[in-house]
Amino acid sequence: MKIVEEKILSYLDSKRDEIIEFLRKLIRIPSVVGEELEAQEFMYRTFRDM
Q: What is the DSSP letter of 4?
């Protein structure tokens, strides 16, 4: 495995719980076609605050 791939996998492993919690919150938000705004705002806030 290349060094870059190892670093990425290591980072993802260290953030596993945070990633799972983010995804749990995201999938709880209804986001059917035409009603995606709440999910989009959630993602915007999350990425803005990183």
A: H
In a domain, 11, yes or no: no
Query: Rounded to a whole number, what is the distance in angstroms from the first to the last CA of the chain?
Result: 29
- Say what the pLDDT of residue 50 is: 87
Determine, yes or no, domain membership for 34. yes
Phi first, then psi: what are they for 34, rounded to 5°?
A: 90, -10
Helix axes 3-14, 16-28, angle to 10 degrees: 60
Instruction: Specify the pTM.
Output: 0.71
The count of structural domains within the chain is 1
Containing domain of residue 46, as a range?
A: 16-50
Q: What integer pLDDT is reported at residue 36 of this predicted model?
A: 94
Residue 36 located in a structural domain = yes
